[in-house]
Amino acid sequence: MTTTLVRAARSQPVDRTPVWFMRQAGRSLPEYRELRQGNQMLEACRTPDLVTEITLQPVRRHNVDAAIFFSDIVVPLQAAGIDVVIEPGVGPVIAHPVRTQADIDSLPELTAEMMPDITESISRTAAELATRDDTALIGFAGAPFTLASYLIEGGPSRNHEKTKAMMAGAPEMFSQLLAKLAAMSTTFIDVQLSAGAQAFQLFDSWAGYLSPRDYRTHVLPHSQRVFSDLAGHDVPSIHFGVQTGELLPAMSEAGSTVVGADFRVEFTDASTRVQPGQALQGNLDPALLFAPWEALQPRIEQIVRDGLSHSGGHIFNLGHGVLPSTDPEVPGRIVDEVHRISTALLSG
Ligand code: 1CP
Questions:
Q1: What's the EC number here (predicted)?
Q2: Across the beta sheet with 314-318, what order do the strands follow?
Q3: Is the ipTM of this complex over 0.90?
Q4: Domain ranges in the chain?
């Protein structure tokens, strides 16, 4: 039985709009904070007991239509042997940033054998979810450009200046780096799909820092490669980046089944910027979860209605991740509301 989320991704008929939230696992949940006490983020990501439990926490609490595999975009880098840590309050920090041709040449390759724990975590989570009615498991990886930014900058960056300097000044080197990272992302997702994930999302979180021309020249071919190399799995894919309103036409050409819209673009505009009939995901502003329900409800209803008017399927989501201080009761209320409104509209 295919799940509602998979059918919506494929723009097939559904009886409700499926919904999940980026960053639905994590710091907004007290049960997550409790489990994470005393362990490092990347250690937790490699421990199947913890990964399975953390992945399922938001499913139980919010009744979302999909679990997203609990991991991080730097896990494949670490699995390949790159020295990276996730510093609390900062994010990923790379011990030896990649700046020269020699740095690129010496990057290790990633193989499935380096990640038996990922296979185990996914299989166990998929088995648990199979006991529920209709909940998909979404795998993911970082897109080549976003991973390159962390590697080149050495950590989170406000302006991505070293990354852009390499892109413009040494485009051949930059392309070699992105090709290597595309291979790693593909391997990471391939392992997840082989173990039972039913869809995947490619996060190009920082692509929105690029102009459409630079994106098309230096980034799009590598993201395209990830989607085409995984096409044999025949599962739906989602392609998302932050602040990508201007980039949606280009990103929609990468070959994903679904395009994720950031909250800074009107859903109805996003609808005209993707390929005809291509499904959309999004795009409620995560900060609106702090607004009173009377103010939030009409925003939810508008996005559900816009989604049903779109020429392809719609997966309801936020336009970026759940903020850590979000009231953990609110996402579940949104799930119920999206289901209630969409069921009524679809049956009426
Ligand atoms: O200790 C903690 O709780 C650290 C916070 C945290 C969490 C919960 C980090 C550090 N990563 C994660 C999990 C995570 N990361 C998930 C799975 C959980 C879920 O979505 O429910 C996913 C999909 C990611 C992906 C990820 N990591 C992205 C892409 C999504 C996005 O937000 O755009 C990015 C950019 C990262 C890097 C990263 N990891 C962690 C932080 C704080 C950051 C961002 C740092 C920065 O600003 O550059």
A1: 4.1.1.37
A2: 66-68, 136-142, 199-203, 237-240, 258-260, 279-284, 314-318
A3: yes
A4: 4-347
